[in-house]
Amino acid sequence: RLRLRLRLRLRLRLRLRLRLRLRLRLRLRLRLRLRLRLPSLLSSTCTACGTTSPVTRFSATRIWGSIASIAMLLVVASPLLRDPVTGDSFPLSTYPMFAFKRPGARVAMDYVVATGPDGARRHVPPELVANHEVMQALMTIRRAVSSGHASTLCAEVAARAARDHSFDRLDTILVVFGDHRGVDYLVHDRVGTERTHARCAIPRTPPPGTTP
Q: How far apart are the first and last CA of the chain?
């Protein structure tokens, strides 16, 4: 589930980037239309007297509103003129994470996996590590590893996995650090390099009438 949520988060970021681009295009088109129509809106020809007079149907409020809208569009579009990496700022961000392609992007993090005797492998969901929040589960793993308590966390996760029947075919919990190519790992399930912090067996209660 952790990997699935990471995938969903990546897709949401890509969708957000596309929406921002579409909004920017629409704003630029509106700005161009207002620029083309503004002279004709500010004045018109009086057919009765043959002279040019101000357009009475457009109030000063609307004119100033159009000017303010154009100014806001220029301010919003200003990040396009800044460097996408070093020019990032608040509240107008250049979104540097979406500003250029990152074919070599890597995923390097600590996580918990469960393995089985037949080579089966499954990422442990966040609720068995801490709770349903992915980021809180991630911080729990990081703190356990950095403080030297990875073995303790491993035993706690193994005890919770023993009560979850979806882990019946798995027998080992691993707390590992992995370094993977982002697209290969999240999309194509290609595992990079991993280093094990802690390993522990999932405790199993023997059936009644059997000798442990």
A: 33
